[in-house]
Design goal:
- The chain is α+β, with helices and mostly antiparallel strands.
- It folds into two domains: 129 residues, Dockerin domain (Type 1 dockerin domain); 163 residues, Mannose-Binding Protein A, Chain A.
- Helix content is 22%, strand content 11%.
- Strands 2, 3, 4, 5, 6, 7, 8 and 9 form an eight-stranded mixed beta sheet that branches. It has a two-stranded antiparallel ribbon with strand order 1-10.
- Strand 4 and strand 5 form a beta hairpin.
Length: 308
Amino acid sequence: MFMSISKSVVVPTLLLWAAFASRWVNAQLPMPSGLSPGDSYQLVFNTSAFTNGLSSDISIYNDFVQTAADAAGMGASQGVSWRAISSTASIDARVNAVVGANTPVYNTRLGQLEKIADGFSDMWDGSLDSFPSYDEYGQSNTTDAWTGSLTDGLRAPGSALGDASGTAWCGRPSLVDGQWIHFFEPSTSISLHVYALSEPITVTDADFNGDDRVDGIDFLTLQEHLGTTGASATHANGDANGDELINSADLTIWEMQFDSSASLGTAAATVPEPPVLVLALLALGPFLSRRPSLGLRQGETLHYFSRR
């Protein structure tokens, strides 16, 4: 509907909408289909880069996979930590890279993530549901990965990474039986890939009206229901993380997922820092729900669109 509004409110509001239109979009984590806000899952990839298996320090392999995830926009920029599915003489792969008891694990296949396990027991029972043969960019990668592990994710005695024997077990990503992690035992001086496991990732979704874009309409939905709790705090009303609370956490998710391609304005503008931008919009909230008339000369009318 159309509503009248004073010029002093319209001008800054239009500048803020224009700023939205030019915002940069953060990379998004790959998300399996069929999950709802609040659900959790984990991801596995086989690094595109190579390394040797000489070190007995597990942090070397953890840093290696974290660096790969960071480069692909799935790590630090998204607040996600990654661990190597690798064993040394002092730690088992399944202890270093912890799979949740009932947290489904997916590969990173581009365009269609595939579930490889239903949780901890399924991950280490000697067989996977799908291949862990995709890298951090979702591309096929079937070259062997260092593991130093047995099929159950425990360290291989005398053949873990960095062991004095000079050899360690690796896995073959093109296999789904126990050989995905325990295939053969080459010299640790050669370079292979490393499997990476994410920490549990909670599904969030700031597309509250289901139009496949996160834009100002979704912001208005969140704004209208800010502070709602319980059964009324639905996804359609602005609960982006499924915790039955519509609050600043949902606002942060909306900000992270905001789509700069949304048609919210045509003018270019310098974008304020995100927290300043959000606070400015919230400060304008009361004006967006009333019909002010001060500030207009006789016969002068300005309009804006509102869903209310």
